Amino acid sequence: MKISFCGAAGTTTGSQHLIDVNGSRILLDCGLYQGRRDEANERNRHFPFDPASLDAVILSHAHIDHSGNLPSLTSRGFKGNIYSTFATRDLCQIMLADAAHIQAQDTKWLNKHRTKNGKPALEPLYTQIEAEECVRQFVTIGYERPIPVADGVTLTFIDAGHILGSAQIVLDLVERGRKKRLLFSGDVGRGDNELLRDPAPCEDVDLLIMESTYGNREHELPTQANHLLRDVLVRALERRGKVIIPAFAVERTQQLIYVLHRLAEAGELPDVPIYVDSPLAVGATEIFRLHPECFNEEVYRFLFEKRDPFGFENLNLIRKVSESKALNDLDEPAIIISASGMCEAGRVLHHLRNTIEDPRNTVLFVGYCAEHTLGAKIRRGDQEVPILGDTFRVRADIQTLDSFSGHADRSELLGYFDRIGGRKERIFLVHGEEDQSHSLAEALRERHDGRIEVPAWKSRVEI
Ligand SMILES: [Zn+2]
Ligand SMILES: [Zn+2]
Hints:
Layout: E1 2-7, E2 16-21, E3 24-28, H1 37-45, E4 56-58, H2 64-67, H3 70-75, E5 81-84, H4 86-116, H5 128-135, E6 138-140, E7 147-150, E8 153-159, E9 167-175, E10 178-184, E11 207-211, H6 225-238, E12 242-246, H7 252-265, E13 274-277, H8 279-289, H9 297-304, E14 315-318, H10 321-326, E15 334-338, H11 348-355, E16 362-365, H12 374-379, E17 384-387, E18 390-393, E19 397-400, H13 410-419, E20 426-430, H14 434-447, E21 451-453, E22 460-462
Parallel strand pairs: 3-4, 4-5, 5-6, 10-11, 11-20, 12-15, 12-16, 13-14, 13-15, 16-19, 20-21
Antiparallel strand pairs: 1-2, 1-22, 2-3, 7-8, 8-9, 9-10, 17-18
One zinc ion is lined by residues 15, 63, 65-66, 187, 431.
């Protein structure tokens, strides 16, 4: 039995872990590595294994850093099943198509520079057609339904509470009479989520591969999120300005819609129009409506009262470019939720250009912004920022709420670990910058005797 850490080891993106057991090869996640263009290009185009040699892929959730390189895998010879939950499959359908679109644009941009410098033009990592073909290899399973996926390997998905359809992956492995239970956490939610159930505890775990994104950071409490959001919005709208919320199209946007719905119902929100301006977010919202099996009790009750959690008066979902452009001329207070969350692409860039120099306006961040992104620059208080080729002075009020984070913080990760039963003889911390993973490793060593490691990229362990 071997585990090879082929991605998201020592970093947060490009999740890929390869399990060799009983002569079968199973890949957990096939995420896109996101970082400096050249490095990302190199890593995403070359797998450290032959895709055709894999027997199956198991996908924890639809986020691009976990699913985004699947089309490369299937177009380079992988013919087996990709196991996921129902909602993960549906989300992948639109997210991989969107990723292909971004790849095409990126490649065009890169090629402009390459041809100028006499270098050969690049092909995009994968096309929209390849993304669509990849989704045909999905095989979907509900939570808590054990299913054999290879000789001596039984898979069970359990709730991860991170995004719609997100799962922890439980593998019951048998090799030459030896039995081991391996748990891969995927990305772990915080619990007390507006929409989702808490991460489910797992029993009898021998081997644990666990995320550590916020291994050394604490967030505001999730239960404070609604009040904090209300306070920021009320203050911002008193100035009669616009509030721009850059948000991830999947999960964060729907979570915001639901919270705004509840606040509006309770009469706690100023009576202003709310726009969700992102075709991907609008598509994702439709998928959310199709998957009540993923929601927590409260949202269920809401649905039973025949109410749509993702639709209410004042809320406008925008797909058309013309309607999006019309928002530029809007001369009244409004809330505009738009992607991308890190302000690297998407329609939010136009809204920022249009609003960031007016002190009546507010830009509110509710999610993670990776280093070097435009979102990170605005958040940390840069006075001038480049947006789509021009420089802008930041005069709008900049606010940040991290209570909406989709990732467990340090205390929540420790709580998650404590609820896992079994010997937990070997623990591998992945999906974190090194300082975050090592800090969490230290905290775990204080409470547990098992062997706790932070594996290096491309390293392999024998079990
Ligand atoms: Zn995720
Ligand atoms: Zn992730």
